[in-house]
Amino acid sequence: MGLIQRPNDDASGAASGNGEQGVLLTTVKQAVRLAQKHSVWPLTFGLACCAIEMMASAMGRTDIARFGMEVFRPSPRQADLMIVAGRVSLKMAPVIQRLYEQMPEPRWAIAMGACASCGGPFDDYAIVQGVDCYIPVDVYVPGCPPRPEMLLNGILMLHEKIARGESPASEGGIYVPEGDYEWTGGKPE
């Protein structure tokens, strides 16, 4: 994050043993990014079998509590990360969009699993072929269902994105393949 300088360092970098404290130099922007990176609060939102793996990510083996995310928030106004875990039906898509719009800025989204990312094996009239048709997505976690370790990797990728200062996908950072989908602003055509 920054540079630590000790007043009595010699050329070899060895500090004097007199117990003097160092000085931490950083910018306000870097401090804000660090605070945002370590205070991401997820919204409770599981739709199908991927939700079981999302719940397992809070257990002792992967333990997302290491990142300050142990409490899944019950209200969108208390959360800044939506993890869409599972298949999204056409009836559920407007609800997802409404919950996403109620979240405070900056807000982030993770599409967990093949169904949330691209519709998975369900290529029919009732399932949305990717939640990115309705909300912008920052990180895609592949798999059917993805393991809790994969979700943890996706969360770490999101942390890196926040630390670099990249804007959320809601501010234009999403890539939508040409010809597949067009951003409709959440309104089904």
Question: How does the SSE layout of this entry go?
Answer:
Blueprint: E1 3-5, E2 23-25, H1 28-37, E3 42-43, H2 49-56, E4 81-85, H3 93-102, E5 108-112, H4 114-118, E6 139-141, H5 148-164
Parallel strand pairs: 3-4, 4-5, 5-6
Antiparallel strand pairs: 1-2
Helix pairs in contact: 1-5
Task: Describe the fold and architecture.
With 189 residues, this protein is α/β, with parallel strands linked by helices. It has one domain: Rossmann fold. It contains five helices and six strands; from the N terminus they run E-E-H-E-H-E-H-E-H-E-H. Helix 1 packs antiparallel against helix 5 (148-164).
Count of all domains: 1
Please give the CATH class. Answer: Alpha Beta
Reported for the largest beta sheet, the result is: 4 strands, parallel
Q: H/E order of the elements?
A: EEHEHEHEHEH
Might you state the CATH topology name? Rossmann fold
Catalogue the unreliable spans: 172-189
% residues in beta strands? 5-15%
Q: Helix proportion of residues, in percent?
A: 25-40%
- Can you give the mean pLDDT? 77
The side-by-side strand order for the widest beta sheet comes to 3-4-5-6
Could you say which overall geometry the principal axes of the C-alpha atoms support?
A: globular
Compute the gyration radius: what is it?
20 Å
